[in-house]
Amino acid sequence: MGWPITGRQREKFSSITSMLKYAPQLPFVLKGLTVTFPGGMKTGIVGRTGSGKSTLIQALFRIMDPTVGQITVDGVNICTIGLHDLRSRLSIIPQDPTMFDGTVRHNLDPLGEYTDNQIWEALDHCQLGDEVRRKELKLDSPVVENGENWSVGQRQLVCLGRVILRRTKILVLDEATASVDTATDNLIQKTLQQHFSGATVITIAHRITSVLHSDIVLLLDNGMAVEHQTPARLLEDKSSLFSKLVAEYTMRSTRT
């Protein structure tokens, strides 16, 4: 299955999710949301807590399906695709990095799809190669449950190594740098720019500065898309919600 197609502007992730709710008796979380993410471009999704950011990503991975409407990727309704086929073509770096009981190798390549050289290359790209080489068992070094013998920053870099290995055409960052320090955040951003320059990258931002270099910013409010424009245009408009969020973030950062 050669889906999705590579190439800027050819691959489109279009959310035509008119309505979406968690259960029939609950209110809608996404309300009449219609938005297109151009292929090969970086889109940052921002909004206050409860605006629908994470719900939109859950819908993309089909953790929940739209109540009304559809989500299409490259013209294909994702509800017509098997979950394994869909998710094998998407990558995500979550806010809470996930590691499991096993080895370094199995945490990076749980299905045994890649060579040792490819795994080492991914580790070097995410600045963990030297750390693993210092361990006696190298790639077979043990990882305890939840990766407790690794720091939070290292766990997030392992997640980065996974997506570098897979090189999917659509990458989601779900507040991926919310729990790491600024240096690790900068490393992740730089690595993604180097290795996913032609991919469609969707970023849910905790630090609003993470989306300032995006091609497009989507601002959600109460489950609706209220702004969808380049960061520069939105910052020029001092009345835009995005401009106000950046000002609030800058003020908080100055105080701390």
In short:
With 256 residues, the protein is an alpha/beta fold. Helices cover 32% and strands 23% of the residues.
Q: Could you characterize what this model shows?
A:
The structure is a single chain. With 256 residues, the chain is of the alpha/beta class. The chain contains 9 helices and 13 strands. Helices cover 32% and strands 23% of the residues. Helix 4 (116-125) crosses helix 6. The protein is globular and about 55 Å long. The N and C termini lie far apart (50 Å).
Question: What is the secondary structure topology, with strand pairs?
Answer:
Blueprint: E1 12-20, E2 30-31, E3 35-38, E4 42-46, H1 53-60, E5 68-73, E6 76-77, H2 83-87, E7 90-93, E8 102-103, H3 104-108, H4 116-125, H5 129-133, E9 142-143, H6 152-166, E10 170-174, H7 182-195, E11 200-204, E12 216-221, E13 224-229, H8 231-236, H9 241-255
Parallel strand pairs: 4-11, 4-12, 7-10, 10-11
Antiparallel strand pairs: 1-2, 1-3, 1-5, 5-6, 8-9, 12-13
Structural class: alpha/beta
Oligomer: single chain
Major sheet: size, sense and barrel closure?
6 strands, mixed
- Roughly what fraction of the amino acids lie in strands? 15-25%
Q: What global shape is seen? A: globular
The value of Rg in angstroms is 19 Å
Into which percent range does the helicity of residues fall?
25-40%
CATH class division of one domain: Alpha Beta
Question: How many DSSP E strands?
Answer: 13
Query: In the CATH scheme, what's the topology name of one domain?
Result: Rossmann fold
Mean pLDDT: 86
Strand line-up in the sheet with most strands: 7-10-11-4-12-13
CATH superfamily label of one domain: P-loop containing nucleotide triphosphate hydrolases
Count of helical regions: 9
- Shape-level CATH architecture of one domain: 3-Layer(aba) Sandwich
